[in-house]
Amino acid sequence: MKVKVDDLEFEKMIPFETIEERIITLGAALTEQYKDSLPVFVGVLNGSFMFMADLVKQVPIPCHIAFMKLSSYHGGLASTRTITEDFDLKVEITDRDVILVEDIVDTGNTLRYLVDKLTALKPRSVKVCALLYKPDAMEHQIPELEYVGFEIENKFVVGYGLDYKELGRNLKDIYQLVK
Ligand code: IMP
Ligand code: MG
């Protein structure tokens, strides 16, 4: 099935049912790891809103949930490398176990920046849970990236929170660009 998002055409890549199944597995691993530590899930907006909502439903333990905003793509297809300095974390994370929840790791620039920023606040631990990961695009070593939903090819994707020009975030499934 194909969809048009603004001027581009996308085809279905990961159906919601597959995403849901994978999140159950990720949730079980997180539940086991963090059941006694009152962790704080920190979602990176806007892309992670759907993933966060479905993920925490699979982690039925005491936890805090917070969001922060940051962006590097500015709407287009390629990573711009300039991160909008908008690091606004409203929750205390010192001595806490933090799980950073990201929609997608592409070059890793955003994640490297975020992990460094969070680490400076002296949490007990920082791990990253990303729904999608493009290993071929990755330019950094990020050992904190411990939980990954799907490793995908280096192709532009939309849906399930991810956008093209701020459109397509509401698509239930994940779609890839038709070349
Ligand atoms: P990075 O800094 O290059 O890793 O890019 C990270 C951010 O760029 C992600 O959090 C997304 O918001 C955005 N991004 C990267 N790849 C895609 C994609 O394929 N579709 C939509 N957004 C993307
Ligand atoms: Mg993002």
Brief descriptors of the model:
binds magnesium ion, globular, 179 residues, five-stranded parallel beta sheet, 9 strands, binds inosinic acid, alpha/beta, four-stranded antiparallel beta sheet
Descriptive account of the structure:
It is a single chain. The chain has a five-stranded parallel β-sheet with strand order 4-3-5-6-7, sandwiched between helices. A four-stranded antiparallel β-sheet has the order 1-2-9-8. The protein has three helices and nine strands, in the order E-E-H-E-H-E-E-H-E-E-E-E. By secondary structure, it is of the alpha/beta class. The two termini are 15 Å apart. It is 21% helix and 30% strand.
Widest beta sheet: strand line-up: 4-3-5-6-7
Largest sheet: 5 strands, parallel
Number of strands: 9
Structural class: alpha/beta
Small-molecule components bound: inosinic acid, magnesium ion
What's the pLDDT, averaged over the residues? Answer: 92
Strand content: 25-35%
Q: H/E series, N to C?
A: EEHEHEEHEEEE
**How far apart are the first and last residues' alpha carbons, in Å?**
15 Å
Cα-based radius of gyration, to the nearest Å: 16 Å
Summarize this entry quickly.
The chain has three helices and nine strands.
How does the SSE layout of this entry go?
Elements (H helix, E strand, L loop, with lengths): L1 E4 L2 E7 L1 H19 L5 E6 L3 H8 L7 E6 L27 E9 L3 H11 L5 E9 L11 E7 L5 E2 L15 E4 L2
Parallel strand pairs: 3-4, 3-5, 5-6, 6-7
Antiparallel strand pairs: 1-2, 2-9, 8-9
Helix pairs in contact: 1-2
The chain binds inosinic acid and magnesium ion (MG).
